[in-house]
Amino acid sequence: MIKNLKTNWLSIALTVVVIISLLLSGLIWTNPFQYEGPRHENLMRGNQQYTTQSMGDVYLPTTVVRTDRHNSQSILYSPEISLVREMKDSIRSWQFGRVTTVKSNNSDVYLSYLRRRNSIMLSYPNAIPTLVFNETFSQSINSDQVNQINHIVIPINGPREVYLLSDHHYGVYRLRVSKGNFNKIIKLSKGAKKIAVDHKIVNGQTIMTYPKSFSLPFFAYQVTNQNIDTLSTNLMSSNQRSNITTSKSGDRTVYTNGNNRRLSYNRSNGTVNYESYVGNDERHTTEQLYSYFYNRLVKTGVQLNNVRFDGTSDHQRSFTYRSFVDGFPIFNDNGYGTITMQSKDGTERCKMSQYSVQVPLPIDRQEVKLPPSNVILDELHASPRFKDLKGIRVGYLWKTSDNNKVVKLTPTYFVKYRGNWVNYEEVIK
Amino acid sequence: MNFKRIQWIFLVAFLAFDIVVGCELLFQNRFTISNSSQNRQATVLKEMRTDSISYGTLSKHQPTAYYISGSRSGDGGQLEQEMAKLHNQTSRFVNTQLTSEFDSPVKVSAEHPNQRLDRLIKRSRNVPLGEAYQYNRQLSDKKTVVYTQMVKGQPVLSSDGQIRFHLNSNHEVTGYTQGYLENTATLQQRMTAISQQRAVVWLYRHNQIPNNSQVRWAIMGYTKLLTTNNRNQAVYVPTWVVQIKTKTAETVQRLNVNAFNSTVMKTSPDTVNMDSIK
After folding, report:
1. Which of A27, A80, A362 has its CB closest to that of B235?
2. Which residues of A touch B36 (CB under 8 A)?
3. What is the ipTM of this complex?
4. Which residue segments constitute the domains of chain B, with CATH numbers given?
């Protein structure tokens, strides 16, 4: 036997290294996507902006829905803590086993998972690539098997499984939980405030409705005014040494840096439009844009504490980041509190404003009563614009006023009209 | 070429492949974003040492905290009401501050004044609302023992929510001044603040820490960010208060860093007019 080993040791060693190399190759194949963008971007700049918000804190689901054992659903929110963020921290320590496809292309089955009895569901505002889910939740789900995710359904006091739901083709995927403690999530859901909701699939689209009337509080904020010189430098700076030239005409100031970077600032409403011609359209794949735009976002110097990813448009080449309060999005006519990043046709664009809400102010705790969403939809139905509406959601209205130092945020319904979220009252007018 | 030779070549080639790829996988840094900033911080900390700035262990933990609203307890407020219960002391309440002198001074230990005082403040006949306060070693010195009001687990680092016991040269407490924050409430969901290390590094990088000095301590607590005209309520923000002592001149200074947005706090907070939205 030993003699045999001695004579054949070379073949045995060769077999061993070949097996190791096969294993390593396998690992690389299945290894989650590595974000290439940030590595280069970060090292170039000395005076880099700093944020306590990681990429996973920005690309988070935005709603938490609890379905009880009587099948009634409610949104959970808390004025004290961000439930989604706490749940994320908990899920990051879980270990998932194999992924299996439960069903696809069946909207009835899909809806039954959206309304699964005794479950907690985390929903993204928009489908996100599985790679981004992996980054946020520190997992390594194979993105060939599950391509994108809209909802994460966690059955409580049921089998130790998690379902990933993708609105596209109504894909339902099952993940076995090999290690993980559900108690923290159950505890978080018990202490939260509730608003009754329901899920439906209308014209092939998943929508969330509010079947009962409910109340939400006002919020007051000090309006933070970012210095335009800092903002323009943050947006335009590059690793090449170049001068920024300015030209003014009326309310508009245009900053240019070389031939390919241009920023236009409107002094009357504080909005900023930045454009950079990069020439090469394929510089970043859609998946890379998630990390690339996150880094751009950090670079703007805007406080990201309550800023969240709020969906894509333009075939996933344009990303929207929005300020949230208590888990509800904030909308403004001038786009205050919203940052849009786009990379399309060889041009990068960034649309934002110098105003943001960061410091909350004490305001008397009155609440606003909102009607059920079907009342709103009935009102909208009468409008000729009804056919252009896609989606309804509850958020906070930031009304632009002459006094741009403080703002009162009012809860109301918003509808998606021609690609923009607008106060429903505007549509009825 | 014989078969054995071919085997050798393959063995070497595969071994090289395994080592290279294996190392790549082992040492890859997926979280390049935080890593590079951590490295930069380590570099800055080294730079500080070469500038003869000494400091103890600085925590990298990012604590969570709130924006808090509250107002100093004034005329007819909780603090003044509780005053009626006080015994064996002469007290007066002027302009939201309670000042009291004990009839007979209280002897305390020089090293651990809190051993005696912790018991003392628990009784409402000695100190009003004492349950809400905790001993703060850093803010205390030979002449003053400071107890800070605790709001959501964090101390109030300004006189708005403090009891300051006055000590005489015999380690006796002669009396105290007290401020109390009432109607405290959280204004927004809990957020992540910057770490202790980040706060000190930030101060150094913005030339706030002179060469030849010592960072004696850095503690986080609430200080006033702004005041409003809405029933005199103020907004408090978690703040890293850093004490720096210059080695040569023996001067001590305190710097306040806003722990949410890493900026040096103003010495006098702004007042916000909320008339338009009340």
Report:
1. A362
2. 39, 42-43
3. 0.82
4. 36-67+187-277 (2.40.128.690), 72-182 (3.30.310.160)
